[in-house]
Structures are given as C-alpha cells and as structure tokens.
Amino acid sequence: MSAASTTSLLKTFLFRGASAALLALALAGCSTTGKDKMTTGSISTVSKPVDEMSGADLAQATLTLGKAYDANPKDRDTGVNYANVLRMSGRNEQALAVMQQVAITHPSDRGVLAAYGKAQAAAGQLQEALATIDRAQLPDRPDWRLVSAEGAILDQLGRSNEARGKYRDALVLAPNEPSILSNLGMSYVLTGDLKTAESYLRSAAGQPAADSRVRQNLALVVGLQGRFPEAEQIARQELTQQQADANVAYLRGMLTQQNSWQKLAASDSAKKAVN
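Structure (tokenized):
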C-alpha cells in the first residue's frame, strides 16, 4: 500500500470523526456562540457546551431546540443552535436544511452566514462553504475564526499549503490561539508528518484557553506514533468516563487499522523485492 493510499485512508478516519470528542479539524468559531458553546437564558439555548455533552444530553438538546425551532423557525439564535446540536449529533443534512432556512431569513447576518458555511462543510458542500464564509468575512476587519475555518475547509479539499497559509494568517490575528494551532497540527497529520503535527498540538494544548478537543487531537497524534499509553493518558483528561472510554476505543481502532496498513505496505514491498 502506497504512502498516498495510507494518507487517504487516514483522512477517511479523521473526517468521519469519533463518537465523542475526537475531532479532526475544528471550523473554529463559525457559530455565533463561539467554540460550539451555548449558554442558559432562554428556550433557544442549552446549559452545557456541546462538545461536553453525552449522547443523552445531545438528544435532549435536540428535542428541546427542535420544538423551539418548529414554533418559531425565523428566530436566529434558535435556528443556529438547533443546527449546531444536529451537526454534533451527526445529522449533517438536517443541520444544513435548518441553516438554509435561517440564512434565507437573515441573508446579511455575518454570524448566520458563518454558521451556514459550517453546516455546508459538515455536509460535504466544501466549495459552497468557502463561498459562504467569504461572504461573511469583512476585508477591513477580518475575523480569525473565519480565516481558520477557511483553512479547515481547504484541508478537506486536499489543498494543504493553502490551508496552512490561512492558519498562519489567523495566528497573526490571534497569536497562540489553541484552536488555530490545533488545526495547523492536524493539517500535518493529513499529509503524514506526525512529528510536526505533534509539535503544533503540544503548543496548542499548552495554551490556557485550550479545551478538551485540542487535547484529544494531541492524543490521536501521539497514539498514531505508537505511544499508546501516553495517548490514553492524554485522552482521559477532563472527560467523563463514558467519553474517555469512547475516545480510547476510537484510538485503539485507529491504531489497529494503521497497523494493518503498515503490514500491507510491508507485504507489498517484500513481494516487489522477490520479483
């Protein structure tokens, strides 16, 4: 198996994502609530950061916000937050449909456009997502979150050099921002440069504002280099037992699959040497 094939399979695993907190690339700040977090205060919001929710929490939030959205589909915050929990539940097509309606009602709202772009990207409409996020950006007052989001989409399109340029532009606007550093690290994972990836992810994880998703990405990269006990220790930080067990299981699955790729590659090399 070629290095290119291995990288392609790795991308498939990464962009599929894990059942809990493992994320390949974060479309940082595309939601109006920031880092996928919503605060209490009305029927259109929930009480816990989305990335910290269990499956039961997400199901309850989806039910509550769905009822609020059905009652008033033109409400901006309800629509954005409902789309957000749908996306985090893996219901990307439904999240996109909700954001399409919100964008029709609020066609010039930067926050809505940003969230719409995020939903498009999650549903695989990558070129459309780039165009939508570009519409949300103000050239004279660029938002680092949107610049980093463009980088994440470019990475999914396989345009790594352009993506890394965007991340570095975002870092000029927001120095040492952990979500940008994490995205930059994961960009190197997608091209197989795990040592460089780990360097950026360790820098990201060391920032005071780093959240658990950054550390889960670091655990993934450490595990992919064969240091599973260290990866497991990182993966279990700050998570519930259920979330940690899910992430550790995902890491084990990644490593098992990676070992299979390596064995196939070694077998191919041996056959070529014999021939």
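The chain has a mean pLDDT of 78. The radius of gyration is 19 Å.
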